[in-house]
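2024-03-11 09:14:02 INFO queue: dequeued item HTH cro/C1-type domain-containing protein, len=475
2024-03-11 09:14:02 INFO validating residues
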Amino acid sequence: MAERKIFAGPRVRRIRNGLGLTQTAMAEALEISPSYLNLIERNQRPLTVQLLLKLASVYKVDLDELQGEAGGSTSQLREVFADPLLSGELPGDQELIEVAEAAPNAASGIVKLYRAYKEQAARLSDLADLLAREGHETSLSGAKLPIDEVREVFERRPNYFARLDEAAEAFHATLNLSPGDDLAVALKAWLRSTHGIVVRALPVQTMPSLRRRYDRHSMRLFLSERLSPFDQLREVAMEVVLLALGEHVQAELEALELSSGEARRIARFELARYAAHALMMPYGAFLSAAIRARYDIDVLRARFNVSYEQAANRLTMLQRPGAVGVPFFMMEIDNAGNRFRRAGATGFPQAKFGGGCPKLNIHAAFAQPGQVLVEQVEMPDGSAFLTMSRTLEGPQAGFGERIRRTALLVGCDAASRDDVAYAAALPDRSVPAVAIGPACRLCERSGCLARAEPPLTRPLGLDEMVTGLSAFDFQ
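2024-03-11 09:14:37 INFO prediction written
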């Protein structure tokens, strides 16, 4: 087996500088030429076994220190430069390795500064949420990434776009579908007859990393076979929306008043997605069916031949003046807690509900894939919500690929529970609701076994004589 070459020039230089030696003095002690030592320090020559032993005997250097790699510092720097603000700065890891090797103290300083930045951003976000709960507007968040700007705009406003809903419903009526007709077939026929676009599903090997691709030259819309029939229908519906309802999408986009072209591009996609759901589940028919089914998502998905996620998403859109449904809201996360979407019929209830409590059943849903978990939860101020959580499966994974699984929470005010079929799964009203909070850093519930962080608003109650249930007891 070939011997691994050890390039440790920066570490040799740090040893020499720490001892206050010149290159000439160190080279003489190691019985090599100053020019050869210079090449070693510049990583143009590896350390030989003889030199390693000489360094260890003359300067009492730990050989592990010389042979070890700066893997820890490199991985920490990699985390820093994976942040969206810095992700485009470096083409690869080589510069990170060089920084970690040549200037470990500077690398450590960069990591500490980044962590302080993240902590400060989290505190500002928590403070903004706290002020919002008390009815105060704040702009503490500063400059936002385009995706964050779009998310904030969509989360704060009602998830209802009148122009898109009305236009989609009117377009659906022009298809003249009879009961039992396949909407996907009708939309594909419209694309072909009106625009000459042919829809084709391609195998995974042909489109290994794409959901869809539109070829302008051949006028073909390619969809990945990874997608379920429901997701393929949504992709076709989005293409129809952009062609037939483009002016309505543009009008709603202008009304959002976003600050950048990138934010507008992201929002345009979200609006097209909204309109696709409106086309697949026309407002009047969907609201009527939802009321009859008492908002049972599985009944609605079967009635409209859509997925659980699509039907649940549509429930949050039922706010047409004069024809409103129960005001649902939803939140989707992955098993690491990363948030993908939050929306609501009247905006996501961030101030009242929060959505950041580890006791919510959306986290438990990952342990029971495909099952709907129902519970009533209560906030510290007494406001109560009915919540339903279930896992969602992403695109079809091949053998050896890890499946993408997220969880979706759908909720409404507990005052509406009698109108919702899921209330039947709740225990008697005399049984107390699950006590939750907005997020650990904003929650002042004492003795909470699930607490992960101390509250921002209270000092820690560290007492050597008395220890509470949580590692973050507060005064």
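2024-03-11 09:14:37 INFO annotate: The chain has a mean pLDDT of 85.
2024-03-11 09:14:38 INFO item closed
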